[in-house]
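Example for tutorial group B:
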């Protein structure tokens, strides 16, 4: 049941609003002035506050200002008999959801309350999803090699420097790219990832730069490419070593001139994009063999980050296993399983050619097939080694 606080110095107004809102099945609390209202907000969790503007001791705008500094931030609907356009604008600029004049129109008030509570639910849901995403993208480990990667990220992320991330498949190159984005000044803008190896060579240019209607047989309408979608944010080009030479030339131009041209178009489109790239290939060898442009390599590799293979950071396996056990139990809605020390030691003996991705798959298999406490025998039985 949503909790609503009514802050108003007029007892009749409080009683009227309380009666209306309780009839709609809301839980109502009251405060007779701004100071009492602020104290209640600090002590309890409210989804919505209906707050008068003109009150003794502390007016509604001041309450709104003080609540903005708290961790708790309920939605606010300001109400006043002395309202003006300027007052309404000031209140909304300070974070109020809406402004309702006195005496309030019943239908408008209830609609505004419902809309404000819907927004509160969306804000809460967004925070939960961001927290889940942050946990999912957590970089686990305390080994010297992973600490070096973390330190490089901290130094490089706030800049707009292009970064080339190298490492074997399954080591977490995209995770590094996400961290670089999240710790940058572009964190609130889009993060767009493109797997260059998964897109056919004849479609990669359309995917990256978009196309105009009629540019080719299946181009039935104009389409924005990934560079435009990532404008203001970060574009992550995964497996860039698999990109065709013609697409490489266009990427090079985009990096040099901050402009792209859609397939079938002749108009230059300005883009503001930070490009991060990753590969599991030896690009210097690819350059020697004529498969990768040297000038593009130098444009992309302002900063180089080598993500270590799991076999080079086996001391991190206990922490990784613990994280995966928690993640998997959360996904399955079951209690988190324990794992004994001998089982962990056995896992540390394996070569892990598939790296973190393979370890995660093995842990999931052990959760499903192993005992309540995962044992060394479970590891011997269900791991592939």
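The residue assignment follows.
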């Amino acid at each position: 049941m949503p909790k609503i606080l009514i802050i108003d110095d007029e007892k009749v107004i409080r009683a009227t609003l309380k009666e209306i809102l309780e009839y709609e099945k809301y839980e109502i609390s009251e405060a007779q002035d701004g100071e009492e209202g602020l104290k209640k907000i600090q002590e309890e969790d409210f989804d919505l506050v209906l707050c008068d503007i003109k009150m003794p001791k502390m007016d509604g705008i001041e309450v709104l200002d003080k609540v903005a500094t708290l961790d708790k931030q309920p939605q606010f609907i300001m109400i006043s008999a002395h309202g003006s356009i300027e007052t309404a604008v000031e209140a909304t600029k300070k974070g109020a959801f809406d402004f309702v004049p006195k005496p309030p129109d019943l239908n408008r008030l209830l609609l505004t309350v419902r809309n404000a509570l819907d927004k509160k639910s969306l804000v809460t849901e967004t925070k939960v999803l961001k927290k889940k995403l942050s946990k999912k993208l957590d970089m686990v480990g305390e080994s010297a090699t992973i600490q070096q990667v973390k330190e490089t990220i901290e130094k490089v992320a706030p800049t707009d420097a292009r970064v080339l991330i190298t490492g074997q498949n399954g080591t977490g190159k995209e995770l590094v790219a996400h961290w670089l984005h999240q710790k940058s000044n572009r964190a609130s803008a889009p993060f767009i990832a493109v797997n260059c190896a998964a897109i056919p060579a004849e479609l990669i240019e359309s995917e990256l730069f978009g196309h105009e209607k009629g540019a080719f047989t299946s181009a039935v309408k104009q389409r924005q490419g990934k560079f435009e979608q990532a404008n203001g944010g970060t574009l992550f080009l995964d497996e860039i070593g698999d990109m065709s030479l013609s697409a490489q030339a266009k990427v090079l131009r985009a990096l040099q001139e901050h402009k792209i041209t859609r397939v079938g178009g002749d108009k230059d489109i300005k883009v503001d994009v930070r490009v991060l790239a990753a590969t599991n290939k030896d690009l210097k060898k690819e350059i020697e063999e004529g498969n990768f442009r040297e000038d593009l390599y130098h444009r992309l590799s302002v900063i180089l980050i080598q993500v270590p293979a799991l076999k080079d950071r086996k001391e991190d396996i206990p922490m990784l296993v613990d994280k995966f056990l928690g993640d998997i139990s959360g996904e399955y809605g079951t209690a988190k399983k324990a794992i004994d020390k001998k089982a962990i030691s056995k896992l540390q003996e394996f070569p892990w050619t598939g790296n973190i991705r393979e370890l995660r798959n093995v842990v999931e298999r052990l959760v499903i097939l192993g005992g309540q406490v995962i044992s060394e025998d479970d590891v011997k039985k269900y791991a592939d080694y």
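The first helix runs from residue 11 to 23. Compare this with the pattern of hydrophobic and polar residues in the output above.
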